[in-house]
Input
Amino acid sequence: MDKLTGIGLQTLNRLEKLGIRTIQDLIFHLPLRYEDRTKVYPIGTLLVGMTVLICGRVEYIDILPRGRKSLVCRISDDTGYITLKFFHFSANQHNRLKPGTLISCFAEVRHGFSGLEMVHPDYQVILNPDVDITQTRLTPVYPLTEGLSQTILRKAVKQALSVWNSEPNSLIDWIPSMILKRFGYPTLAEAIQTLHAPDDSVSLSALQNGSIPALKRLAFEELLAHHLSLRISRNKTKAWQAPVFRLCTDNAISEQFLSALPFKLTGAQQRVIAEIEADCLEQHPMMRLVQGDVGSGKTIVSAYAALLALAAGYQVAVMAPTELLAEQHKRNFSVWFEGFQTKVVFLTGQIKGNARKDILQSLADGSAGIIIGTHALFQESVTFHRLGLVIIDEQHRFGVHQRMALREKGQKGNTRPHQLVMTATPIPRTLAMLQYSDLDISIIDELPPGRKPIVTSVIPAERRADVIERINSWISKKRQVYWVCTLIEESEVLECEAAEKTAEQLTIALPDVRVALIHGRMKSKDKDVVMQAFKNHQIDLLVATTVIEVGVDVPNAGLMIIENPERLGLSQLHQLRGRVGRGEDDSYCLLMYQSPLSDTARQRLGILRDSNDGFVIAEKDLELRGPGEVMGTRQTGSINFKIADLARDAGLLDAIQEVVEQIVVQSPEAIQPLCNRWLGASTDYAEV
Ligand code: ADP
Ligand code: MG
Output
């Protein structure tokens, strides 16, 4: 940045707030939109909604004390007049806009009190009427931060461009020209030039809607760089050794395990198990993600992987995001491994003293084969005798670091344990490729037989009384109900308060019903007590915040009311809804929205009503909303792109897959510079 002149420390600090630290950062700081100041519009031709440059003389100026104090000024040219309005203004401004003064203004034309008006136009007093006030190119409008003006930023970008242009190595186009030609993309230099200073050949609308090749090309390059870097990291993983799990040749162990189950595996489960088995025969660590809708039976698949490890004489660690879930796994694994002379132990932060000591001892000396727990598994001084497999459930709830820490516990010399992660958050395939492209992906796309689809209806909050009546009759049939209060403006505190209030109201409205409350600000021990009581049917109606999104099986709870569902992402709603429909009986989900509902919101809730398939829902949601929302804000490890926008550019991903292969084979020298350009030189993506 020291190559730029006229940029003080203060500006540098402000630029840094925008994530701009280098010349390259400035160059990739693209305009948000563009303004067309290439021609002056006669005032008489203006229509509401146009954003245009006009020029006229001040007729009169006045300060209106009515309502909000404002400076009002009328200007006119030969064709008509328009009112300018300022709510923030200075005395100086008042003085400069004397009647007769010629000024130019740029703003959106609106309907005003007395005809057309512009509010807070960008204006300039014209001293010499012979000077052309139009611009030859579209004017870029950059994202700003407090204290930084468009003028400063435009100047800085302009300088940065000329510095960059003069440095021979900065502009190397690492994308082979064959590929550029194939997609009709401009070169890097052309693309950058076009976006910061578009010439006549570029239409404003193509620029605004992001369809121009210049922008596509940069997004393409950025996504490509991310793919390449993950590809490198995957290769690094392959450089580690891992134990080989080979079941005894006669498959007796496998048979014993499967025949003891109360159900037959679905085809999808069998396929995924075969994929895992193949991974574990390799000498390199498995890094596999199992995606499957809620209730698709991921747990048994992971248990089968555990069987492979145990049979080969290795230990298995299973990590779940909540104690409740860990406990549920503990119960399941204990039953499934009953006949296998292996000790299944359980560890959470709550287990202390001698009990803890014994558990740690059994892991260190190898007498425990399977350990199931929460993040206490890696936080504590846990050492393993021979850890061969790490299983992580609901992986989106864990940070990348937690995932790594557990893996490192099993690291010996150049050997690492295999890793299996599971998630019920369905992510469209194209997104999964980027989000998890350091992982191989298996998908369980089939539910166990006999599941009845959840009947979902969308109803307005005005029908609350009917809903309460419905709860009453449901509970009189000895069934249980969830009532979910959703996030209010991203505030957990408010969300909990709302849930408290709702619980109170429902207690009054339903005097014979046992109501309980669970929310995110309760201690996890207290949450577990409530969940356990609900499970034991000591509670009929559970009022909850979205904390129950990842949770336990309570098959008797077959009715769920979700308040204000329009506030949540569809995938999150689908997860929530997955808490019901776990038993044999019919189950229902009522989406109780606040009127009025926008068209998009109505469409989105309609998707949920019409489909029970998490993948279909995620795909459709992606079409309607951005990918960040599909992934959910809680998603850790999601990538922040400089230019690419997955909602807009998802269509590029298939082609990128292909181009990655091509570059690896034909232009390997491009890989490192591309990663450096887009991910930063120091990024060690390899370990993520
Ligand atoms: P999730 O994929 O959401 O983690 P679980 O592993 O908890 O799902 O399984 C949901 C329920 O389905 C459990 O009660 C499990 O025992 C049961 N289940 C799993 N696989 C099958 C199957 N093939 N047939 C019938 N029930 C199954
Ligand atoms: Mg699960």
Observations:
- The domain at 39-134 is CATH 2.40.50.140 (OB fold (Dihydrolipoamide Acetyltransferase, E2P)).
